[in-house]
Amino acid sequence: MVAKPETLPVPNDFPFQWENAEEAARSWVVDVMHWPHGLSPLSAPMDMPAFMLGITEAARELCMPFINHDPKLMHG
Predict the structure, then answer these.
(1) How far apart are the C-alpha atoms of 72 and 70, rounded to whole Å?
(2) Which whole-number Å values give the CA distances from 53 to 11, 32, 35, 56, in the listed order?
(3) Is 19 buried (19+), middle (13-18) or exposed (0-12) by CB count in 10 A?
(4) Residue 55, class by beta-carbon neighbours within 10 Å (0-12 exposed, 13-18 middle, 19+ buried)?
(5) Does the predicted model carry a pTM greater than 0.85?
(6) Residue 12 and residue 7: Cα distance in Å, rounded?
């Protein structure tokens, strides 16, 4: 049995706007393994590009089925 995808409601205490409907329909996760306390607006532009290069290379080497990583800082 495959679960039907559904849109989760946005909590009142965490309002934000997606840039477009396609972005809202994507699958998003919080990366608590690498950033358990989130990222600040200052650290995100320095940390995220380097992390994305590393995870892309690791995924390629490990033959992981990732097509695209698209990080997004929300409420940073």
Answers:
(1) 7
(2) 32, 19, 16, 5
(3) exposed
(4) middle
(5) no
(6) 15
Enter the tokens of residue 32.
């608590």
Residues 34, 69: Cα–Cα separation, whole Å: 14
In this structure, the number of other CB atoms found within 10 A of the CB of residue 39 comes to: 19
Per-residue pLDDT of 3-53, as tens digits, reads 777 777 778 887 778 888 888 888 888 888 988 988 888 998 899 899 988
| 3-state SS record for the chain | CCCCCCCCCCCCCCCCCCCCHHHHHCCCCCCCCCCCCCCCCCCHHHHHHHHHHHHHHHHHHCCCCCCCCCCCCCCC
Place of tokens 């033959």: 63
